[in-house]
Amino acid sequence: MVADTRLSTKLWAAANWFLIGFFLLNLLGMIATVVTSSFATRWLGTWLPAGWTTRWYSAAWAEFQLGDVLSVTFQIVFLVVLFSGLLGVPAAYALARRDFPGKKLVMLLFLLPLLVPPITFGIPLATVLYRLNLAGSMSGVVLANLVPTVPFVILVMIPFIEQIDTKIEAAARVFGANTFKLFIHVLLPLLMPGILAALLLVLVRTIAMFELTFLTAGPTSQTLVVALYYAVFAAGVRAVQSIDAMAVVYMVTTLIWLVIALRFVNPTQIVARAKR
Amino acid sequence: MTIHAANFRELKLDKLSRDFGSFNALKEVSLTITKGEFIALLGPSGCGKSTTLNLIAGLLPATGGGIWLDDKRIDQLRPEERGFGMVFQNYALFPHMSVNKNIGFGLKMRGVPKAEADRRVAEAAALVHLQGQTEKLPGQLSGGQQQRVAIARAIVVEPPLVLMDEPLSNLDAKLRLEMRAEIRRIHNTLGATTIYVTHDQEEALSLADRIVVMREGVVRQVGTPEDLFSRPDHLDVAEFMGFRNTVAGKVTAVNGGTAQIAIGGATVTGRVRESVAVGQSAWVAIRPEDLHPNAPGQSGLVANLVSTEFRGREFVGFAKMEDGTSLSFLAEQKLQPGATVTLGADPDRVLVFTGGKA
Amino acid sequence: MSSVEAVNAIPLKQRLAARGLDGLTMLVLPAALFVVALFIYPFLYGLFLSFTPKAGNAFANYTRFFSDSFLYGTIATTLWLALPVTIATLVLAVPIAFRVRLMKHQRLLTTLLVIPITLGTVLVAEGLLNYLGPQGWFNRTLMTIGLISTPIKLLHNYWGVMLSLVITGFPFTFLLTLSYLTGIDPALEQAGATLGAGPWERFKNILFPLLLPGLAITFCLSFVQAFSVFPSAVLLGAPAGPTRVISIAAYQAAFEEYDYSMASAVAMIMGLVQLAIVVLVLAARGMLYRGPAGGGKG
């Protein structure tokens, strides 16, 4: 549109940009503080640390057993991604392709775990898992994490599957593909981009999922984010820089996967998933 | 009828340009439109016709040139300050407002007193035959009805200019014909100056007083429907107006308004539309309905028949010349594929161009 | 049944298939059973458990909750954090989303904003502990500019939790608002402009009414998230006092007192308060236009 050049409009725009700039500045400041501190020899009462060092990383690695924590984290994340794909994709396919009585109810069933915050359903869920002697172990953590990720995969995949023309499947059948061949040669290649995007988002969400893991993990099944929480919670026991080094390790692990995921999805999709 | 067109003499586009980065969507287009005219901007997609309309409406800022309404320069004005009416391609009806509120929106924005606004909305609804539908939401209306609301909403504010952006492109064939007649009827009733964008030459020919043919951001020809139909100025305009057979040859003689062109072994005579000189290469353009098989023994364009199609009254033949040029023509009987045909046309129906499909 | 009928009868399998129930539909079962077993069942189990307290009658947990200000006070404490944060982020998000939607290269901004959401509340809490501290860059900058003379206390009180909720909540609200806003057909605004509506009138009459149903959903999702605040309330707030939010009460009952029955009761109450606000907002939304935000025919 022909631009509005009135002063009031320009001032209003400037105010908006100022706000967003202020927000981003603080966000980056917060992240930069953590990174700076993790490389600081001593940082008290000055703008910048007295000197620079990388020794906090080796300190954190040893103190917090980061090697073990990372290995546990990735085992849990891998299992969650695998099972959410195995359970979620077929269900999404059925929901995208069939109309059946009670479908609305099933959709609601899958929507609820995404709408109810984890801490709310996490406490009764942890209670059940403790009764079943599943909590405190890796399997309990994986099960708890699957509760929101399976519905997440389903809700991300349904629109993706719906936009694939059913005639393509019909054509494959006409040309003689049986169900298995149809799946391998036609469906899987078509669905792959969607599955990849959904699972990458699951991966990022699971690395960052604090509440469910926190409520169900035992000492040997802590993921990085839970270990970070305990470290911050018990601050004073360890050097601040050591905790910051751990936080940087956590940020790097999360952000690497976020960057990979963003190659396949739009940032707004990460939050807009739950809208109906 | 109290809805009438606002008063002005003419709208002038003066070397109007629009660039999108390095792409020139519109290149110095100049055009004068006088009050009461129905102008169609016609051209294939990407020719700049919609860009022109958006520039006039103020939905896009121009990157060069100006727009004048009589003595007032309006291209710097924001769309809401121009006071034109516009019918959008997908109607752009406000989905949360009733038909009445949609039609009355422009009046409300202009601060027209409620009583008068209500009266004018009712009148506009009646004009587009929407009585009894006015409390519905747009989503409850059929495509044709939505179209009527969009037209009523644009004309109720009595704009000096009504802009229409391919308003019929979303309707099915039958409804399209019906709404075409409606648009013409409403134009005749109100006399509102209208600029109508379309890529359908039939629509332009049947609706417009004058047609502006555009291509790649420039105006190729402006004329009445009759002008464009029988006297296109350029080869590309001719092609767009239905001269589907275009064949290249060499000029062998020029005689006043006619010229002879040698094509293969034959000579074709036609009316000169772009001046040509003997020895130059040139193009002839012929409508399929003007091209017929010649009587045996007569010379003409020699081609090999590919297929014929039955068209109810006659057959349409498709043939290929030796150099690969495709020809389509009318035949009275079904012909055998593979047969050699000799085709000719009345010299008055053959147009000669210098070529250069701009 | 006569044999003729048996021949003519459509087989059960085919009748079910006609209603959409065939082998393919069954693919939904594993996921559905999983969610029933690990979401619905625990919820019902928790509900049941909350009525079987360690001592007293069936309602003992609830009676105790609502008679102990240390417990029922958490509702007000949490609301006092969640509602202002939700409203503030929404009020900020709407004008900024209107500005950003006109941007050609939104991607950099949206990517930056997705970072705090992805990093999560624990890391934001850890970062703010440094950043907002008395020696942190935030206070330091304010003192250098001369806005304050002594560091303001932003940690281990209401403001620390509030600010951490804004850092994770604003991007969430903003991105959701932006996605609703970009779902509105731009031709509607153009139509408004050609009909004489200026920027404010276009916002008031066209865009805002069309955005409002989406804003209601955004409000609900943002509120529910803020209401379930946990790690930042512990790490940045004063978990024993001003920021003792309801999730802390539930956590303490479960993992410090090992009273799962009481913990379930608190979780149920937490769920109910969230539900009450959501129902309230959605009921108000029911009065709005909710069709497609496009100008075309469907």
TrEMBL record, chain A:
Signal peptide: none annotated. It is a multi-pass membrane protein. Keywords: Cell inner membrane, Cell membrane, Membrane, Transmembrane, Transmembrane helix, Transport. InterPro entries: MetI-like, MetI-like_sf. It is found in: Cell inner membrane; Cell membrane. Residues 70-261 form the ABC transmembrane type-1 domain. The keyword Transmembrane helix applies. The chain crosses the membrane at residues 12-35, 74-96, 108-130, 142-161, 182-204, 224-240, 247-265. One of its GO terms (biological process) is transmembrane transport. One of its GO terms (cellular component) is plasma membrane. SUPFAM superfamilies: MetI-like (SSF161098). The keyword Repeat does not apply. Belongs to the binding-protein-dependent transport system permease family. This is ABC transporter permease subunit.
From TrEMBL, chain B:
SMART domains: AAA. Keywords: ATP-binding, Nucleotide-binding, Transport. It is found in: Cell inner membrane. One of its GO terms (cellular component) is ATP-binding cassette (ABC) transporter complex. InterPro entries: AAA+_ATPase (IPR003593), ABC_SmlMolc_Importer (IPR050093), ABC_transporter-like_ATP-bd (IPR003439), ABC_transporter-like_CS (IPR017871), Mo/tungstate-bd_C_term_dom (IPR008995), NA-bd_OB-fold (IPR012340), P-loop_NTPase (IPR027417), Transp-assoc_OB_typ2 (IPR013611). Its main location: membrane. The keyword Transport applies. It is a peripheral membrane protein. The keyword Repressor does not apply. One of its GO terms (molecular function) is ATP binding. It holds the Pfam family TOBE_2. Residues 11-241 form the ABC transporter domain. Belongs to the ABC transporter superfamily. This is ABC transporter ATP-binding protein. It comes from Bosea caraganae.
Automatic annotation (TrEMBL), chain C:
PANTHER family: INNER MEMBRANE ABC TRANSPORTER PERMEASE PROTEIN YDCU-RELATED, INNER MEMBRANE ABC TRANSPORTER PERMEASE PROTEIN YDCU-RELATED-RELATED. It comes from Bosea caraganae. It is found in: Cell membrane. Its main location: membrane. PROSITE patterns: ABC_TM1. Belongs to the binding-protein-dependent transport system permease family. CysTW subfamily. This is Sugar ABC transporter permease. The chain crosses the membrane at residues 21-44, 70-96, 108-132, 158-181, 206-227, 260-283. GO terms for biological process: transmembrane transport. GO terms for cellular component: plasma membrane. Gene3D superfamilies: MetI-like. It is a multi-pass membrane protein. Keywords: Cell membrane, Membrane, Transmembrane, Transmembrane helix, Transport. Residues 75-281 form the ABC transmembrane type-1 domain. Coiled coil: none annotated. Pfam families: BPD_transp_1. InterPro entries: MetI-like, MetI-like_sf.
